[in-house]
Amino acid sequence: MMDQAENLRRIVNNRINYDITNSNSSRVITITSGKGGVGKTNVAVNLAVQFQKVGKKVIIIDADFGLANIEVLLGIVPKFNLSDVINGRKNITDIIIKGPQNIKFISGGSGVQDLIRLNKNQLNYFIKNMSLLDEIADIILIDTGAGLTEAVLSFSKAAEEIVLVTTPEPTSITDAYALIKTLYIQDKNAVPNIKLLVNKVDNEKEGLEISNKLKQVSKKFLNIEIEEVGYIPYDRNLIKSVKLQDPVSISFPKSESSKAFKKIANKILNANHKDKTKLQFSAFIKRLMDVFSN
Ligand SMILES: Nc1ncnc2c1ncn2[C@@H]1O[C@H](COP(=O)(O)OP(=O)(O)OP(=O)(O)O)[C@@H](O)[C@H]1O
Ligand SMILES: [Mg+2]
Fold first, then answer.
1. Is residue 204's pLDDT more than 50?
2. In this structure, which ligand is nearest to the CA of 36?
3. 40 CA distance to ligand 1 centroid (A)?
């Protein structure tokens, strides 16, 4: 019997060849961290709001399977999730949920791990569906779960760029470095572009010191260049916004954290894509499957 992952790779390859004529492709950015609870979901949602404000079409995928982060933050209970697409019950467009300010998101549901168990036709259906997102979104943000789990690593490896979130806490910094190092050890030639974001800082100086430290050790010991993408201050308005289940960029647009999110969103949009043309979402899925099958 043909290995499922191999099967999937073949299908996706066909799909990618077919897609070359399609000029639409989304920029896929995974929001990740070593340690949990550092602010990834808030980063994902607020970057989405900021991108949206400057006319970008954004979809967030809640890849924190089980815990439904985005849903809690936006106060929405979705009826369907990615497993309904994986199982062929729904099209991807049916499970896109509209949140405040037209932020769109997709709930991950029980997990991409289900993919490995599908047969050829089911996989084909899934990949075709996923590549529809390339036509709908300019940017796809993937919010990952807490901790250095296999799933978090997989999503980080498959993306062309990651926003790595840390806070000034020493454990958060060492866990961020552990994530970089794990990516390096697993495949030093396939480390994604890493954009470091320091959240909950007291001031800019603190943020700068932390990113410099992480930049230096990554360069020195792993020869990896990471970029700093900015800092977000510790902000009580953000905590209030979580309680209101409304992103701070909407509920308190003039707050310090909202201003910081705006600046970071601009920086990401203006970042040079040295590497390449944008990766198609279907190609992202292919890489994800490669990662899962290894
Ligand atoms: N800039 C900030 N200022 C103050 N508090 C913050 C800030 N960012 C995050 N928080 C607090 O940290 C909590 C956790 O944030 P969030 O849920 O975004 O983290 P996470 O990394 O997604 O967590 P998990 O790993 O569990 O998914 C928030 O509910 C909020 O109370
Ligand atoms: Mg989260």
1. yes
2. 1
3. 7
Residue 167 pLDDT more than 90?
A: yes
Distance in Å, CA 92 to ligand 2 centroid? 22
Q: If phi over 0 gives left and psi between -120 and 50 gives alpha, with beta otherwise, what is residue 121?
A: alpha
Q: Which helix (H) or strand (E) holds 218?
A: helix 204-222
Give residue 245 CA to ligand 2 midpoint distance, Å. 14
What is the pTM (predicted TM-score) of this model?
Answer: 0.87
Tokens standing for residue 126: 């899934």
Task: Name the burial class of residue 119, with classes exposed (0-12), middle (13-18) and buried (19+) by CB atoms within 10 angstroms of its CB.
Answer: exposed
Which amino acid, residue 98?
Answer: K
- Taking a 5 Å cut-off on Cβ, the residues next to ion ligand 2 are 40-41, 69
- List Cβ neighbours of 76 (8 Å cut-off, separation of 6 or more): 97, 99
Residue, of 271 and 217, whose pLDDT is higher: 217
Which SS3 state, helix, strand or coil, does residue 259 take? helix
Q: Which domains does the chain have, with CATH numbers?
A: 25-293 (3.40.50.300)
Give the nearest ligand 1 atom to 36 CA. Answer: 25
- Rounded mean pLDDT of 173-202? 93
Cα separation, 11 vs 286, in Å, equals 9
